[in-house]
Amino acid sequence: MARTSMVYRGIAIMGLGALAACQGEVDEAQSEAASRVAVLPPIEVAEGDGLPDELPAGLVWETNDTDPTFASPDAKRGGTFRTSMLSFPLTIRRVGPDSNGSFAGPLRYNQLGPVTYHPNTRRPIPSLATHWAYGPDGRSLYYRLNPKARWSDGVPVTADDYIFAVKFMRSKQIVAPWYNNYYTERIRDVKRYDDHTIGIQGADPKPLHEMHYQYAFGPVPKHFHEPRMTEDWVQATNWEIEPNTGPYQISKVDKGKTIEMSRKADWWANDERYLRHRFNPDKIRYRVIRELNVAYQHFVKGELDTFGLVLPLYWHEKARGPEYDAGYIAKYWFYNDLPVPSAGMYLNTENPILADARVRFGLAHAMNFDRVIETVLRGDYDRMPTFQLGFGDYDNRLITVREFDIDKANAYFDDAGYSERGGDGIRVRDGQRLSLRVTYGAPHHTERLVILREEARKAGVELELQLLDGSSSFKTMQEKKHEIAWMSWASQGLSPRYWEHFHSANAGKPQTNNLANHANPEMDDLIMSFRASSDLEERIALAHRLEQMVHDAGVVIPTFQVPYTREGAWRWVKLPEWLGTRTTGALFNPHRLSAGIFSSGGLFWIDEAEKERTLEAMDEGMAFEPLAVMNIDYRAD
Question: Does the residue 103 lie in any domain?
Fold first, then answer.
């Protein structure tokens, strides 16, 4: 397949004469850059660690080609799927500064790992690897890579790309502390046994069913990145299109406006068991529409193909009218069973006011989430009782929320020294007002925050609302320039994660996910014990204790949870008759994953004949039967 090029609109392209005139300068610049390319050092292995030089004898190679398929054989290829995003990404790099933003999902989900998990059975299924085996030490995995696997530019995926991946992720050039740490501390060794056989050794033994989730990682294209590993790698690759292994690749960028991804007609995995009949549109066009309500208007006009209707305002009030009554737009309500996004208010403890636990507890009791649920959210959402939820036995069900209680809030604030109130009713301590800034990036959350702000004033707290666009909001939080971060993390996997959010190694540092800047040596030890344990019962007990410590610290005020997705789609966007899978987080997610490690996305398709029929019916004033579907197969009792 030809290498995909990036297209920028509005930029003049030099003629051939100008290019030839500059060629000497280009060669000189490339030569200078080549002289600065870093030679990544060999993978260092701690004493006592390391994979064997030869494959261990007696490995039992496994695969999974018997679990049921979950895509529809009726799916059709073709068409353009038109969707939107609230902000334009600050980069299209997968790692490094600003990479964890608005377009991270489409980029990362088109880079496959060796295996993924079946969205209904939750068992491992092949992805880049066809077979796998577990090492005798309880912390090693071995993979046989699919020899058909190719990068976007046609270069084969080999074991060398895995060796390079660890060197790359450990390198300082990528300016990614989380990846540096993870690929040093958690991924201890990787070894090439032949072009298509690798071994990966993790830091500690794990329960077998969690091994892939804990230690499997995807390759990094050595042929692409190795020549670029200079001290200015971050800036140099900010807008370069990295080869990937998934079905889609970026094909056009109109900066600040749109990103288009095109499907690879000769994608190497077209006929693989769990990937066939999926990822059906020829193109996916992401258009920046910075206001959700404006995006909805584009949807109703037929300029976007689908629209999320989880928000009660949209489902109950906006999603009605002639387009729905005439059956042009369908409504879907689908219950799922998957880890719940960790939605909350993350309190930056480096702020002097929030460093006081009494203030944090007072804030929690001053937040009237029930009123938000009863009014703005129409009773559709539930309170999130803990930081993480949806991991089965790992969930600590004994924790209860800190309810809205003005008396308790007042007691905590008084005890913290904020016992006086100014003329505006806001509490004061030594001349300092109890005023805190809430940073957020979703305009449609403003109504929720306004209610919380007005209710909090009853306890003498001022919340200053700081709305930024999505990318800027997350950047502010990652750089730890927030006071209170209003956001949610996409929970994923088979067990909760604590190290990145609460270990002191990530406190006080930019570009880490410890938004609370929380540091507690006792918790650090337990987090490391949780990461090191291979005993399921011990891990569950540690998770319960850690979740309790998060609650007791009060550094996160959990907000809401939603056990379903609700979406609208024009009738030419088709779904399987079962709509989705147990772990489907979004019915119209065009990519491989919709809930962390579970392979459940890309099930829909565009029916071009139905689109033509629908548009003709609209022109002629003809109607279809209204369509509203609810699937409760996975609704909790």
Answer: no
